[in-house]
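for the recovery benchmark. tokens below, seq after
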């Protein structure tokens, strides 16, 4: 769920338009599409995604496997939505699926790393997913809070406090910074 620039995303879309993943991305990230239509597409997808995660989190240690088509049937969703789901969960899997080259007969697995999945949901700002009640049976409140903070802090850049010219020098000499270590700065 890493952040990409629009240019990088458009380049990826052009490179794989013939694959299932390419078709999904071309549709879901189409910059020229009607905004309302795109909003409906994503709202429908998010509802499907939430339902699948709720089912997977009920048995988090079970590794669900099957072809892309079989999993779409198993979860009662379209092949297109299954491809979108596989695209989203792939970075959280213990063993990544070949999503760039898969077709409907490719065997894939949904064996996810619980902590990585939770953190990726936080990173994606998908509160409807990381707040699913099924997480309560996997991690206690303290663990969920710790994972949430770890993920939030991982993307935060902390700049050191700037030393003012008239502040005491951090070297401990007792002199003003401008007359000590700041003299050559």
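predicted aa per position
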């Amino acid at each position: 769920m890493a952040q990409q620039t629009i240019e990088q995303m458009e380049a990826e879309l052009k490179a794989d338009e013939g694959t299932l993943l390419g078709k999904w991305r071309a549709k879901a990230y189409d910059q020229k599409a009607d905004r309302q239509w795109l909003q409906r597409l994503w709202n429908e997808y998010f509802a499907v995604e939430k339902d699948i995660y709720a089912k997977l989190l009920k048995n988090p240690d079970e590794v669900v496997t099957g072809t892309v088509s079989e999993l779409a049937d198993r979860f009662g969703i379209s092949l297109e939505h299954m491809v979108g789901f596989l695209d989203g969960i792939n970075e959280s899997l213990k063993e990544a699926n070949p999503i760039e080259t898969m077709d409907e007969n490719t065997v894939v697995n949904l064996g996810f790393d619980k902590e990585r999945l939770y953190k990726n949901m936080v990173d994606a700002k998908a509160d409807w997913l990381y707040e699913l009640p099924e997480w309560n049976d996997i991690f206690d409140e303290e663990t969920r809070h710790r994972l949430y903070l770890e993920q939030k802090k991982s993307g935060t850049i902390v700049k050191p406090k700037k030393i003012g010219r008239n502040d005491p020098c951090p070297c401990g000499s007792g002199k003003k910074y401008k007359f000590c270590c700041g003299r050559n700065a």
